[in-house]
TrEMBL record, chain A:
Lineage: Bacteria, Bacillati, Bacillota, Clostridia, Lachnospirales
Domain of life: Bacteria
Keywords associated with the record: Iron, Iron-sulfur, Metal-binding, S-adenosyl-L-methionine
Name used for this protein in its record: Putative DNA modification/repair radical SAM protein
GO molecular function: catalytic activity; iron-sulfur cluster binding; metal ion binding
PANTHER family: ENDONUCLEASE/EXONUCLEASE/PHOSPHATASE FAMILY DOMAIN-CONTAINING PROTEIN 1 (PTHR21180), TYPE II SECRETION SYSTEM PROTEIN K (PTHR21180:SF9)
UniProtKB/TrEMBL annotation, chain B:
Domain DUF4130 stretches: 89-253
Domain of life: Bacteria
Protein name, as recorded: Putative DNA metabolism protein
Cross-referenced InterPro entries: DNA_repair_put, DUF4130
Cited Pfam families: DUF4130
């Protein structure tokens, strides 16, 4: 390691280096826990999260996102701080981190601290530094705001547990979706050293009984009450309904056991094995005197998208397995940004694959809030999301037999599957139709995007106007409605990036191929 | 033709509640009365009688109690937030909402297909979003006497909605949040509950006498802010969409750039 190190480096310079080095980590929301302030300490926490500013890339700044040090004995190919890079190295002291956090917080610049780190000397040494800093911030500086920190892969479970009592959220980054990818690009990390602390944190949290959105959705799907919405008329639809209506019954299936749903997904198998075999090593450490709970906001992880040739199917299958087996609150997807020249890394002449990243987030939402399974959205034969259509439209077009659904009768989760109906409008429909039969006009006011939904719904047995329920026709119609993509994501540009990997196929059974050749 | 009666009231929950009481009590017919909040420029209507209404404690209490008892606490909350909205015709929308609410009860807030209810929801949403924005976008500067001071220019009257959050979070600090447009403020003393006050006499200049550390931490924050954006993902349109310019004048990280 070629270390350039300046003993007298100013705090400002350190902050510059160590925030620069931390900025690629996206698993950094400030959400997940509500905690009131207490006299004698500073801070509270809001479960919904608060954005304090937005940086030049348009992303939310919520936490003081820094590395403790950018020195690192690991040599992950994609990482700016890898051991083999010739860069200026710097380290904070615990006091400096505490002082920055406190002074930024009281001026309302930030919602809390996000502390990550390069691996200095050893995983244990680094974990101990992080733990010591958090302890000082909580017990000497009396900080009661939000703290997110990393569990260092390979660190001793005792240290991970001790840190967990001071943090609100912890994360271990999976980095790459497959073991193979890790082996190639992150030779010092293994699936095992990443998943072990994840499992440990999950077991520790079991006592806390905090539930992730994914779990809440799954429970609601299996029949329990959801959002206090009474669903009197769901699932037991009147017998004289049309064929489509009866099919609704099969639309929402109870989640299959994961192993049943995914045939030979080696990677998810791999995760399952570790999930089963890891034994609890919790309870080694006594909680601190001010007990805020053990990682009360749960854990998250991040996967880098586009550095290795995994398909979208592999990526969301892994995400689903993480939600199921490790009870993660969030999986984040980070479009790979080319920082290092390396023959093992792809060149991305058109910039990071932002549209692909966006599609994965959309699919992630469908898993967590809409009750979809990864295997419904993609398959081995169709392993990647459609560039031109969002994952839900894409699914609906492939399952036209389940439509149209009757707005005044379909249950909550069936409504959620209609393109143009989101969580809010589905909730409103279920509430409003108890007062009056809903008409298309009402749907517009409720916030349903009718121009998208009209192909998939009936109101009182009638569609908005006669529509040919035919895949190619509807596909064409939906594509011609411009999808509202996040600002700055240019579909055509990202298409080129995606095509770097030759296993990516945009065509599908949905006849997208024709449309594309027409529009290009 | 019937002359319309327009009840004019001050721009506050108190004013609007009193006007609602008087309008109702006039028995002039709901279609023939209107509530108008003072302060905003308005077009005078012909064939209308304008009636000035001053706040009346008894009437305010009665209206508040009726809403809570005959509709619901939730509806009362919605009405208050709507009264803090910047919408010009909020007084009359609230009046129409209450007519409906007294008629059908607590269900009124689920009547998503009714135009008045939709207007109430939109005002509430606007107030809610702005409140939430300010929880994050407020910036405190530390003055020489270690008081944290923040100046804001919100569209809606949100001071009382953000006060509980900051009093809880910064319970060990002395702070003032000052609404420059309405000349009102939240004042919080360490360890005490917050108070709302009109602050015409507030000496803003004195508070802008900064503590010795203030400049240092501003500079550090600026450094952090400038560094944390990812060059390869630069997206000023998205930034402007998420953080509209109207918020930026009081945010330190934008002061040197704009």
């Amino acid at each position: 390691m070629n270390v350039i190190y300046d003993e007298n480096m100013s705090l400002e310079r350190k902050l510059e280096i160590l925030s620069d080095a931390a900025k690629y980590d996206v698993a950094c929301t400030s959400s997940g826990v509500d905690r009131k302030g207490t006299p004698g300490s500073m801070g509270n926490s809001i479960a919904a999260g608060i954005c304090h500013s937005f940086s030049s890339d348009g992303r939310c700044i919520s936490l003081l996102k820094i590395l403790f040090t950018n020195e690192c004995i690991f040599d992950c190919k994609y990482c700016l701080n890898r051991a083999s890079n010739d860069i200026v190295r710097a380290s904070f002291t615990p006091e400096e981190v505490c002082s920055l956090t406190m002074e930024f917080y009281r001026r309302n610049y930030i919602e809390g601290l996000f502390l990550s780190s390069g691996v200095l000397n050893s995983p244990n040494y680094t974990m101990e530094l992080i733990c010591q800093t958090l302890k000082m911030l909580r017990e000497v500086y009396h900080f009661n705001g939000y703290i997110h920190c990393k569990a260092i892969p390979g660190a001793d479970p005792t240290l991970v547990e001790m840190t967990g009592w001071y943090a609100d959220r912890m994360s271990v980054n999976l980095e790459l979706p497959t073991t193979e990818g890790l082996r190639t690009l992150a030779p010092h990390k293994t699936r095992k050293t990443i998943l072990r602390p994840m499992k440990q944190i999950q077991l520790g949290r079991d006592e806390m009984a905090g539930k992730s959105a994914y779990q809440v959705t799954q429970e609601a799907l299996s029949g329990s009450n959801f959002y206090g919405i009474k669903q009197n008329n769901n699932r037991n639809l009147p017998k004289n309904n049309s064929i489509h209506e009866t099919k609704n019954n099969s639309l929402i299936q109870l989640p299959q056991k994961y192993s049943g749903g995914l045939q030979t997904q080696e990677e998810s198998e791999n995760i399952n094995i570790i999930a089963r075999n890891s034994s609890a090593s919790f309870g080694l450490v006594k909680p601190p005197s001010v007990n805020r709970g053990f990682v009360p906001a749960g854990q998250s992880t991040q996967m880098i998208i586009g550095a290795t040739p995994e398909s979208d199917y592999e990526i969301i299958s892994v995400a689903e397995a993480l939600y199921q087996k490790f009870d993660l609150k969030r999986v984040f997807y980070s479009a790979y940004i080319s920082l290092n020249q390396d023959s093992l890394l792809p060149a991305l002449p058109d910039g990071p694959p932002l549209l692909r990243e966006h599609r994965l987030y959309q699919a992630d939402w469908l898993l967590r809030f809409y009750g979809f399974q990864a295997s419904e959205l993609l398959s081995k034969e169709r392993p990647n999301f459609n560039v031109f259509l969002d994952p839900k439209c894409n699914w609906a077009l492939g399952n036209l037999g389940q439509f149209p659904v009757e707005i005044n009768k379909a249950d909550y989760f069936t409504l959620l599957r209609v393109p143009g109906i989101g969580v809010k409008s589905a909730q409103r429909i279920v509430k409003a139709r108890q007062l009056a039969n809903l008409k298309f006009d009402d749907l517009k006011k409720i916030g349903v995007v009718l121009k998208r939904a009209l192909y998939f719904i009936t109101c009182n047995g009638k569609m908005l106007y006669p529509v040919k329920v035919e895949e190619n026709y509807i596909t064409n119609q939906l594509i011609s409605l411009k999808e509202k993509l996040p600002l700055g994501i240019d579909g055509s540009n990202s298409y080129k990036q995606l095509s770097l990997f030759d296993d990516v196929k945009f065509s599908s059974m949905n006849g997208i191929m024709n449309v594309r050749s027409m529009s290009l | 033709m019937i002359t319309k009666k327009i009840f004019m009231c001050e721009d506050s929950v108190d004013g609007i509640f009193t006007a609602i009481y008087d309008a109702w009590d006039s028995r002039y017919g709901h279609d023939n009365v209107r509530i108008q909040v003072q302060g905003e420029e308005m077009e005078l209507e012909l064939f209308s009688e304008y009636i000035d209404v001053g706040p009346d404690e008894e009437k305010i209490r009665k209206v508040a109690r009726s809403i809570k008892e005959k509709i619901s606490e939730e509806a009362f909350d919605m009405v208050c937030k709507a009264a803090w909205s910047h919408e010009k015709n909020k007084g009359d929308v609230i009046y129409r909402f209450l007519i409906l609410g007294f008629h059908i009860g607590s269900k009124v807030i689920n009547l998503h297909s009714n135009d008045t209810v939709i207007k109430m929801f939109n005002m509430n949403r606007n107030v809610f979003y702005e409140t939430h924005h300010f929880l994050g976008f407020i910036r405190f500067t530390e003055s020489k006497n270690h008081i944290l001071f923040s100046k804001i220019n919100p569209k809606n009257d949100i001071l009382r909605l953000i006060a509980p959050h900051f009093s809880d979070r910064l319970n060990n600090e002395n702070f003032i949040i000052y609404d420059e447009k309405r000349k009102s403020a939240i004042v919080h003393r360490s360890g005490y509950p917050w108070i709302f006050t009109y602050a015409n006499e507030l000496d803003v200049d004195k508070l802008s006498n900064l503590s010795p550390e203030e400049e240092e931490f501003r500079a550090l924050w600026q450094t952090f802010f400038d560094t944390i954006g990812i060059e390869e993902r630069k997206n000023y349109r998205l930034q402007r969409n998420n953080l509209p310019k109207r918020f930026r004048s009081n945010m330190v990280e934008f002061n040197t750039q704009d």
